[in-house]
Amino acid sequence: MTTWQDIGTAPRDGTHILVCDRSDDSFPFSQRPPTVAHWFGPPDLPGLRAGGWYLSVSYRDQPRLKGLTHWMPLPSPPSKEGN
Q: Which residue numbers in the chain have pLDDT < 50?
């Protein structure tokens, strides 16, 4: 099993990862579910001045995620047989 890692070590190449988001203080940190996110911006899009973390299932004009502290890789999807 993979353990949570500091967000500073997360891949910034568009890879989808699990993240912990501390931007909503209405929930205790230990009760917040992880979120699937990805980095959008340099280095995957050269020419942009700044990148940021965004939900992987995003909606139009969604703001960047803020307050992220930890990440871990997504698990492998199930096989065609469901295992």
A: none
